[in-house]
Write a structure and sequence with these properties.
Elements lengths: L56 H11 L18 E6 L7 E3 L13 E3 L11 E11 L13 E10 L6 E8 L4 E7 L2 E5 L7 E8 L4 E9 L10 E3 L2 E7 L13 E5 L5 E2 L12 E2 L4 E7 L10 E9 L8 E10 L2 E8 L4 E3 L5 E3 L1 E8 L5 E12 L1 E6 L4 E4 L4 E3 L3 E3 L3 E11 L7 E2 L6 E5 L7 E3 L3 E2 L4 E7 L22 E8 L8 E3 L3 E3 L4 E10 L3 E10 L10 E3 L9 E5 L4 E3 L9 E3 L10 E9 L7 E9 L5 E3 L11 E10 L6 E10 L7 E3 L2
Parallel strand pairs: 20-30, 32-40
Antiparallel strand pairs: 1-4, 2-3, 4-5, 5-16, 6-9, 6-17, 7-8, 9-10, 10-12, 11-12, 13-16, 14-15, 17-18, 19-22, 21-27, 22-26, 23-24, 23-25, 23-28, 28-29, 28-30, 31-33, 33-37, 34-36, 34-38, 35-37, 38-39, 38-40, 41-48, 42-45, 43-44, 43-46, 46-47
Length: 682
C-alpha cells in the first residue's frame, strides 16, 4: 500500500485537515524487552534536528515546505524525508500567538471546552513554543522495529523547540483523529476550537528535568468510558496505555516502545530560522525536544491522525494547566477504489448470455493496517436495469488490496456499468466507491446468418420456391436480465419476396406462403410464388426479430440480387409436332348385263379395315346406276384411315328383270405409311 505524505498547513499558518478514527480500548502496557523507537532507522532521536545518517527534522521541514508551496522556508536542506507517510512542521508567527486560556483548557476536557487567544502575552518564556513538528513512518517489522501482532511497524515521531530553557520541559502532544482547527466562537474568555475528540485520540506527555537526564513519558488515549481516575484510567476520558520514568532515548535500551530526548548541549544547530530569549540562533541545552512512540506495539497502527497539537503545561499531571500550543495538520486517512470490468469494453451476447466480472483495488492512505469489504453491483443503462448486488461483500485488507467479484451473466444486449463500494471496518478509514472509470461495457447483439436456396426453374404456370437456413441466433433476454436464466429461443419472422430481373420491382402473379414464424435456428420454407409472366426472377429473404428482442439483429439476404443461387427462370410452355398420315379411300364399279345392256339399280359399298371385310367398318356408301350411266362410285371425302390395309364389300340391288348381286369382299388395298415421329419446340 502506498501512502502519501502531506500536511495541509503552511508554515507560520493554521488550517484544517479532515480526519478519521478507530475507537479502541487498549489495556495498560508496561515496558518490556525487544522493542524499539530510537534505533528504528527513521527519525534520528539523538537531540538535534539536522540529518546525519537517517531522516531528521530538517528533512520534515523541507518536505512540508515543498508540499505547501511556495517553497519559502529555509529548512537547512533541500531534501525531504525518505518515506514518511505523514509530516507536520509549523512555525509560530510570534511569541504571543495561540496560547491556552480559560479553566476548561485541560486534557481531560473535550476540545469543545478548550479556549485560546492571541497577542495576550504573559506566557512564561520556558513554556513558549516556537516550532512544532511530527512525522509518521510505516515499515515491515524487524528487530529494530518490532510490530507485535501488527503486520507493519508504525512509529509516530514528534518534537518542538521553545523560546527559553530556564526550567524543566513539560510538554504534551495530542494526535487527533478528527481535524481540529482554531475557531472564532467565544469560549472561556477566549475563542473556541473546531472539531472534537474521537475515541482513540493519542496523548503523549513528557517531562524532562535535571538537565534533561531524567525523562518521564506517559501515553494515554481518549476513552469516554473512563469516567474518572482509577485503575487503567489516568483521568476522566483518559486511559493509560503505557508509562516510564526512564524513557530517555540516549540511555534507552536497544529496543524501546517510546522515548524522548532534549538537546544535551548548548550551541546545538537549529536548521531553520530560530532566535531564543538570549538572542541565540542555536539551541541552548534543553530548548529542543523530540520523541517517538511505536504505535504497533501499543495496538494503534490502525489509527489515522488528521491533526497534531504540541502543548506546554505546568506539570505532567493530566489535570495540569495548559499553556502554549502549536496546532498543525498531519495525515488523515483516505481511501480510493479503482475497478476494472472483465470485457475490456465490449462483449457479444453470443448464444444468449455473456459471463462478466469485475475487480477492485482499494488504496488507503494515512495508515498501514486496514480492512473492510467490497460490494460489487451491476446495473443496466440501456436497457435500464436496476443495480443488482453481485455476490456477498468480499473481504479486503492491506495484505491483499485487490479482490474480484464472482462471475455473473447478462442475457440482453445493451450497455451496463459495474460499481464497487468499499466499506471500511477500520474506524477512521473512510468508505469509498469507484468513480465509474473502466466500469462500463457494451454487450453487442448478433446478426444471424440467413443463407437461402431457391428451387428449380419452372415453366409458366408453375410456382417457384425458396428455402432459408437460419443460424447463429441468440436467445432472447431472460428474466431477470442480470444473473437470470436464458431466455426463449429467437423469435420473429422470415419473409420471402420475389422480384423481377431489375431487383426492385415485385413479381406479379399468385403468391403462396411467403412468411414463416421463427423458433430459433433451423430451416424455414419453402416459400412459393406463381409468376404470371415468363422471365428471370430473384428471391430475397428478410429476418425480422421478435419485438423487444435486442439480442438479434434483423437482416436481408440477397438484397442486391447478386447470389445466383437465388435466381430462378420462368420459361415459356414447350410445344411438339407429331406426324400421323391418313388417306381417304374410294371405290367405283361398272354394272353390265350379259345382253349388253346397262341394268339400272343401286350399288352399296362397305369400307372395312383389314383384307377380309371383317375388321372395323369404316363407312357405307351408295350410288345409283342407270341405263344411261352404268358406273357407281363412293365419292368419299370425309372418312380417312391410317390403316395399312382396307377391303371393300360391294353389292348390287338391280331393277327387274336384272339379277341383283349380294355382298362380295373382292377388293383389297395395301398402303405403305411412314410417319416422321415427333418434333419438339426449341
Amino acid at each position: 500500500m502506498h501512502l502519501h505524505r502531506f500536511n495541509n498547513l503552511r508554515p507560520r499558518r493554521r488550517g484544517l485537515a479532515a480526519g478519521f478514527a478507530v475507537a479502541v480500548c487498549l489495556p495498560f502496557l508496561t515496558l518490556g524487552a525487544a522493542q524499539a523507537v530510537h534505533d528504528a532507522g527513521n527519525i534520528e532521536l539523538e537531540g538535534n534536528a539536522v540529518q546525519e545518517a537517517f531522516d531528521d527534522w530538517d528533512n520534515v521541514c523541507q518536505e512540508v515546505d515543498v508540499l505547501n508551496a511556495p517553497d519559502d522556508v529555509d529548512c537547512g536542506t533541500s531534501v525531504g524525508t525518505s518515506g514518511a507517510t505523514a509530516v507536520d512542521w509549523v512555525a509560530e508567527p510570534n511569541l504571543n500567538a495561540t496560547i491556552f486560556t480559560g479553566g476548561g483548557s485541560k486534557d481531560p476536557q473535550d476540545v469543545s471546552k478548550w479556549a485560546w487567544k492571541d497577542g495576550a502575552g504573559g506566557l512564561p518564556d520556558k513554556d513558549n513554543l516556537l516550532h512544532a513538528f511530527a512525522a509518521r513512518y510505516s515499515q515491515p517489522p524487524s528487530a529494530d522495529c518490532p510490530a507485535g501482532t501488527a503486520t507493519t511497524c508504525d512509529i509516530l515521531y514528534f518534537g518542538s523547540d521553545r523560546y527559553d530553557n530556564s526550567g524543566d520541559a513539560q510538554q504534551g502532544f495530542w494526535f487527533f483523529q478528527n481535524a481540529i482547527g482554531l475557531g472564532t466562537n467565544p469560549v472561556g474568555g477566549g475563542q473556541g476550537f473546531t472539531g472534537v475528540h474521537r475515541a482513540g485520540d493519542l496523548l503523549v506527555i513528557s517531562d524532562f528535568s535535571n538537565g534533561g537526564t531524567k525523562s518521564t513519558i506517559k501515553v494515554y488515549e481518549w476513552d469516554p468510558t473512563c469516567l474518572k481516575a482509577g485503575g487503567s484510567c489516568g483521568d476522566a476520558n483518559l486511559r493509560t496505555l503505557a508509562e516510564s520514568t526512564n524513557a530517555n532515548c540516549d540511555t534507552a535500551a536497544d529496543q524501546d516502545p517510546f522515548c524522548g530526548i532534549v538537546n544535551p548541549d548548548n550551541g546545538t544547530a537549529a536548521p531553520w530560522e530560530y532566535t531564543d530569549k538570549s538572542g541565540n540562533d542555536t539551541y541552548l541545552q534543553g530548548e529542543l525536544y523530540e520523541g517517538g512512540v511505536n504505535l504497533s506495539l501499543l495496538g494503534l497502527s490502525d489509527r489515522c491522525f488528521a491533526s497534531v497539537a504540541s502543548e506546554t503545561r505546568s506539570s505532567t499531571s493530566t489535570t495540569a494547566t495548559l499553556k502554549d500550543f502549536v496546532l498543525g495538520g498531519f495525515g488523515e486517512c483516505g481511501s480510493t477504489t479503482s475497478t476494472q470490468e472483465s470485457t475490456g469494453g465490449t462483449a457479444s451476447i453470443g448464444t444468449g448470455s455473456v459471463s462478466v466480472s469485475d475487480s477492485a483495488t482499494v488504496v488507503v492512505t494515512g495508515i498501514s493496517s486496514w480492512a473492510g469489504t467490497v460490494q460489487f453491483s451491476l446495473r443496466g443503462t440501456n436497457p435500464v436495469v436496476a443495480a443488482v448486488n453481485i455476490g456477498s461483500p468480499v473481504a479486503i485488507s492491506n495484505s491483499d488490496n485487490s479482490v474480484d467479484s464472482i462471475s455473473t451473466t447478462v442475457t440482453a444486449a445493451g450497455d451496463y456499468c459495474w460499481s464497487a463500494a468499499f466499506t471500511s471496518t477500520t474506524e477512521g478509514v473512510p468508505d469509498s466507491a469507484d468513480d465509474g472509470t473502466n466500469e462500463c461495457f457494451t454487450v453487442t447483439p448478433v446478426t444471424p446468418s440467413l443463407p437461402t436456396t431457391a428451387g428449380p426453374d419452372v415453366v409458366l404456370g408453375n410456382a417457384v420456391t425458396d428455402t432459408a437456413a437460419l443460424s447463429g441466433t441468440s436467445r432472447q433476454p431472460g428474466s431477470p436480465v442480470i444473473n437470470g436464466p436464458l431466455g426463449a429461443v429467437a423469435g420473429g419472422t422470415i419473409t420471402f419476396a420475389l422480384y423481377k430481373n431489375d431487383c426492385t420491382t415485385l413479381a406479379t402473379g399468385t403468391a403462396g406462403t411467403l412468411s414463416f414464424p421463427v423458433t430459433g435456428d433451423g430451416s424455414y420454407g419453402p416459400a412459393s410464388f406463381t409468376p404470371d409472366a415468363v422471365g428471370t426472377y430473384h428471391w430475397k429473404a428478410t429476418y425480422t426479430p421478435a419485438a423487444g428482442d435486442p439480442n438479434n439483429v434483423g437482416s436481408t439476404y440477397n438484397g442486391d440480387c447478386s447470389d445466383s443461387n437465388e435466381t430462378v427462370v420462368v420459361n415459356t410452355v414447350p410445344t411438339s409436332l407429331t406426324s400421323a398420315q391418313s388417306y381417304i379411300p374410294n371405290d367405283s364399279v361398272t354394272v353390265a348385263a350379259q345382253n349388253g345392256s346397262n341394268p339400272p339399280g343401286t350399288v352399296t359399298f362397305q369400307l372395312w379395315t383389314g383384307t377380309t371385310c371383317s375388321g372395323t367398318l369404316l363407312g357405307t356408301f351408295t350410288d345409283n346406276v342407270t341405263a344411261g350411266d352404268n358406273t357407281a362410285a363412293t365419292n368419299n371425302t370425309t372418312i380417312s384411315t391410317t390403316a395399312a390395309n382396307v377391303s371393300w364389300n360391294v353389292k348390287l340391288d338391280a331393277t327387274s328383270p336384272y339379277d341383283s348381286i349380294p355382298y362380295n369382299c373382292f377388293e383389297t388395298m395395301a398402303v405403305s405409311i411412314n410417319n416422321g415421329g415427333t418434333i419438339n419446340s426449341p
